[in-house]
Amino acid sequence: MVNDFVLFGPCTVSFLSFAAIYVAEDDIATYTIKTIDDPRTLNKTLYLRPPKNILSQREVVEIWEKLIGKELQKVTLSREDFLASMKGLGYAEQVGLSHYHDVLCEGCLTNFEIGEEGEEESQLYPEVNYTTVEDYLKRYI
């Protein structure tokens, strides 16, 4: 079992701009099927942003701690140290970590407004009972 966790500098702040969006695979399928015959989604981009699943890295760790009944030792790594740690890694590892940085530290999934070209799933389909991060993590207990 993991006893400590590395949090990445600004990614630990609970602001929408430093959050990631977590969506379970089954929920992606549910929303996809719902859009097939929905004229509101014709020629539009559907954004999956389940409100309870827009979380910072710290918030996800806190949910995990609650589930396991234990506080983990947390170490914060600055943005500069995180980026520096990628030097010397292979191209594939750098690409993966760069995406991780853009999502959690730059907020690339949450730092924009949805325009007329898109629709948000939680607005179109509020009846969908999506999987929360907490429920998803319970499968690993």
From TrEMBL:
<keyword id="KW-0560">Oxidoreductase</keyword>
<dbReference type="GO" id="GO:0010283">
    <property type="term" value="F:pinoresinol reductase activity"/>
</dbReference>
<keyword id="KW-0812">Transmembrane</keyword>
<feature type="domain" description="NmrA-like">
    <location>
        <begin position="22"/>
        <end position="137"/>
    </location>
</feature>
<feature type="transmembrane region" description="Helical">
    <location>
        <begin position="6"/>
        <end position="24"/>
    </location>
</feature>
<dbReference type="InterPro" id="IPR050608">
    <property type="entry name" value="NmrA-type/Isoflavone_red_sf"/>
</dbReference>
<dbReference type="GO" id="GO:1902125">
    <property type="term" value="P:(+)-pinoresinol catabolic process"/>
</dbReference>
<dbReference type="GO" id="GO:1902138">
    <property type="term" value="P:(-)-secoisolariciresinol biosynthetic process"/>
</dbReference>
<dbReference type="InterPro" id="IPR036291">
    <property type="entry name" value="NAD(P)-bd_dom_sf"/>
</dbReference>
<comment type="subunit">
    <text>Dimer.</text>
</comment>
<keyword id="KW-0472">Membrane</keyword>
<keyword id="KW-1133">Transmembrane helix</keyword>
<protein>
    <recommendedName>
        <fullName>(+)-lariciresinol reductase</fullName>
        <ecNumber>1.23.1.1</ecNumber>
        <ecNumber>1.23.1.2</ecNumber>
    </recommendedName>
</protein>
<dbReference type="InterPro" id="IPR008030">
    <property type="entry name" value="NmrA-like"/>
</dbReference>
<dbReference type="GO" id="GO:0010284">
    <property type="term" value="F:lariciresinol reductase activity"/>
</dbReference>
<dbReference type="Pfam" id="PF05368">
    <property type="entry name" value="NmrA"/>
</dbReference>
<comment type="similarity">
    <text>Belongs to the NmrA-type oxidoreductase family. Isoflavone reductase subfamily.</text>
</comment>
